[in-house]
Amino acid sequence: MIEVTILGTGATRPTVRRFTTALVVRHEGEVFLFDCGEGVQVRLSQSGFSLMKIDKIFITHFHGDHILGLPGILFSMAKNERKKAVEVYGPVGTERIVNGLISLGFGRIPFDVKVHEIHPGQSITGKLNERGTEYSIDTFKTRHTKESIGYVFREKGYSNIDKEKMKKEGIKSNPKFAELKNGKEVTIDGVLFKPEDWLIEMPGASVAYTGDTMKAKSVIDAVKGVDVLLHESTFNEEDRGKFDWGHSSARDAAEVAKEAEVKHLYIIHFSHRYKSIKPLLAEALPIFENSYIAEDLHGFVLKKGSFTQFKPKGRV
Length: 316
Ligand SMILES: [Zn+2]
Ligand SMILES: [Zn+2]
Prior knowledge:
The protein is of the alpha/beta class. The chain has helices spanning about 40-45, 65, 70-80, 95-100, 165-170, 175-180, 195-200, 215-225, 250-260, 280-285, and strands at about 1-10, 20-25, 30-35, 55-60, 85-90, 115-120, 125, 130, 130-135, 135-140, 150-155, 160, 185-190, 190-195, 200, 205-210, 230, 265-270, 290-295, 300-305, 305-310.
């Protein structure tokens, strides 16, 4: 299961309605933070996440709206007497930025801050268990005014009963199939069912987050077929050329979603010039039907092929 809570949805600076764009991904007890603008701690606390549970922070690039919350988070962790290391991932240059922030001298940091500089295309894999890698986070280059990377969080695949085959052979569902699903042989009415004959491997859930970008082929290639794409959409077509440097319109985001054949699209990272985001959604919908506006503190859950959206405080 992947649960994504959208902490912020705006560009440039936090406002009461929209904090700067950031996400929390929860997977099997681990909590990952993607981007870390000013005020992210407020949204984390509103959505019930403890700072102490965050072990990995992923930064897309070094514009203030994606990184200025980092010193605050490190300071709060220190005040809570954290001992466990924090890992920070980001583009080349992250080490210099993180060390620079710490060297401001805002407080003693009594835990390790391990920095990993990522080259686009590199994958970060989760802990290994008997079933293999639990998750991977693939990275890709985006097209922005600064070196910038996007992330695709992929859950490992899982085994499921081949329902098509069952239907074709006229076999009805049976409670014993739960054991079969767990890899055990079962006998029903004298017939032996072996896992290798009846189980198929299903792909795990996947979520992609672009950070800031213009429409780019590198993004389309990297997010191909994901369950959910969160693509920035700073402006609408009417404003193209006015303040769109290094960014996408809602139409661009929808075209990427369509070309990459993703299942669902959230447009995110909106300019504060827009009082309402509805015109941006109206631009995306005719191109890509499953488009939604990202709202602060809303989110969604991906679980074995299902997609469920939730509102604030509605986490599962
Ligand atoms: Zn930004
Ligand atoms: Zn930026």
